[in-house]
Please model this.
Amino acid sequence: MERFREVRGTKDLRPGEIERWHYLEKIVRTVMDRYGYLEIRTPMFESTELFSRSIGSDTDIVQKEMYTFPDRKGRSLTLRPEGTASVARSYLQHNMGRGKAVTKLYYMGPMFRYERPQKGRFRQFHQFGTEAIGSPAAWYDTETISVFYEILDAAGLGPLTVRLGSVGDPGCRPAYTSLLKEYLRARSDELCGNCKERMEKNPLRVLDCKNRSCGGAIESAPSLLDHLCEPCTAHLGEVRSTLEKGGIPFELDRSLVRGLDYYSRTVFEIHHDELGAQSALGGGGRYDGLLEDLGGPPTPGVGFSAGMERIITVAESLEIEWDGGDEPMIYVAPVEETAAGDVFPLVRRLRRRWKTEGVREVRNLKTVLKRASRAGAGIVLLLGAGGALTVKRMDTGDETGVSVDHLEEEVEDLRKAIAARRSEERDS
Ligand SMILES: [Zn+2]
Ligand SMILES: [Zn+2]
Model:
């Protein structure tokens, strides 16, 4: 019979790699907490209209990449392709902004897009991100950039540069859009098929095209940065000066637009300085019109999102050491048949404090040590007749007898000694 396999574009995260996920997740949670963002977990599917209305019905995501299906009652549902729409929906539904100037939320979890699977790109992938909803102030744009920067930095992913741009607002974007359309029409024979279509419906998205043939036209296209209205210019200026004062390295990107329609004013990406063309680790921006588009009152917001597969792949390719804090495991084995019955109570006692494994079968010492080593043990406890206990350090091979009353103290001392030796080895 043919065996089942992962569905194309999905991936099991197994022991051996899940540790890196735990490590990244822990950094995300720690930094989010310091910045005062609270976690929200929204459902993995929503009504299809939520996404078509928020992301934009002529974006690639909505046009070709969503997992959309009717449920048994014929309602159209979609597996979430990104996080912001769901968070905005939840914010409005639960009136989360009541009595607060700004609501700061973060999320982390799987998203789904029907894309061509490639290295580091999956159809079920994982993102984390923030949404700060309720304030138009540039402070929150800067804070959004800062919290993302801090997470990447804490994960050892430097040197980093923020690429900053602005997509204007309804006050200045329309005039620029028609200017851009005019420019693109004049150079339309250089554009790829996709862009010829986009040019009419959504010319800004042409600037996001990665197709090489479009590169020339994009490079000399007029920049929205030169056509911002006064309030948009002032807003961008404030983001810039705050970043400067905060010591976050950034550069202005004159053609930066993001793949979603809901952005206004600030857009940004954070790039690793040594990765070449594919150096973006994530990005985001402001979406002052989004909540209104979803039927809410006018409510500004700003956020970012980042792909976890991407960050983990980059960390691996840069050979960044992610110390998952692997603690020395304790392995308990009997050396006499009469001691076999004592293994379980002892293992249970040790597991109240430490990671411990035990076996009931009596084997010769060589076999015990081989199995302990394969299990990743740092400390082996050998149980003899009449409650005799021997503790063995795997790294040095030292062993001593210990009384069961002082077992925890002895183990604690050994763990400290092993950790000290490991950190010495790392430093040398
Ligand atoms: Zn193109
Ligand atoms: Zn403007």
Observations:
- The pocket of zinc ion (ligand 2) is lined by residues 168-169, 171-172, 228-229, 231-232 (CB under 6 Å).
- The two ends are 53 Å apart (CA to CA).
- The longest helix spans residues 407-427.
